[in-house]
């Protein structure tokens, strides 16, 4: 197995204040959409994640703690280091080590350090196990099957690519406001739950699947790492050719009335999660949609 890199704490997506493409006019803090924020940039980025390096550092700190000035194990007397080594513990022993009650010979501070070190080691092992189980070969997705197969996932993880961004979603605004439309989302027409500053649909299923699978294939190591660390990956990319069309609110940067401006795009965003309860862990697409071209 190739040595996995630890979760990164850099390169996160800009936040947004609302009006993103992800449902109900609520901005996705990974997308950079909404509230007049800047459109997504072309390069994929890795969201902030709890770091395996940080977990290992926490373990090391907990191990080395316990020799404060005034301790018998350090200058001036106090509790000696217990010599706790979480890396040598079995999984069950680590679970037992989460008990915060001091053991014979432990001070309350040392018991707290043991709990911290055991928790960090558990997280390191969970990350490594998930990373290995996800495998080195990138999965391939068919969005229609993906959305249907995981339709029972509720809440924020409910797959909704074709429901909100599929080629079958009507493009122009419905004067009767009975159909979900791409243009109508800019204005918050029913059945949309609120307005958005950006709203796009894929051109067709073929380009949809090609673009998404190309992104996954080219960025699988980052995706795999993020899924192992946090259970989720978000990124944006430039496919290089047209992938869809839609509208942006060209009044998003001012105080004027909302106005839908149509254009085509080669950019897209994707959010991937692990199917809840899957063992081994199985990735699926929560949402993937064409997005606004970066504008300088």
Structural commentary:
It is a single chain. The protein is an alpha+beta fold and about 300 residues long. It has two domains: about 50-135, no CATH class; about 140-290, no CATH class. It is built from eight helices and six strands, in the order ααααααβααβββββ. It has helices at about 50-65, 90-95, 110-135, 145-150, 160-165, 180-185, 205-220, 220-230; strands at about 200, 230-240, 245-250, 260-265, 265-275, 285-290. The strands form two sheets. A three-stranded antiparallel sheet has the order 1-3-4. A three-stranded antiparallel sheet has the order 2-5-6. A hairpin with an 8-residue loop joins strand 5 and strand 6. Helix 1 packs antiparallel against helix 3 and helix 3 (about 110-135) packs antiparallel against helix 8 (about 220-230). The chain is elongated, with a radius of gyration of 24 Å. Residues about 1-20, about 20-50 and about 60-80 have low confidence and may be disordered.
Summarize this structure as a short list of keywords or feature phrases.
disordered N terminus; 296 residues; three-stranded antiparallel sheet; alpha+beta
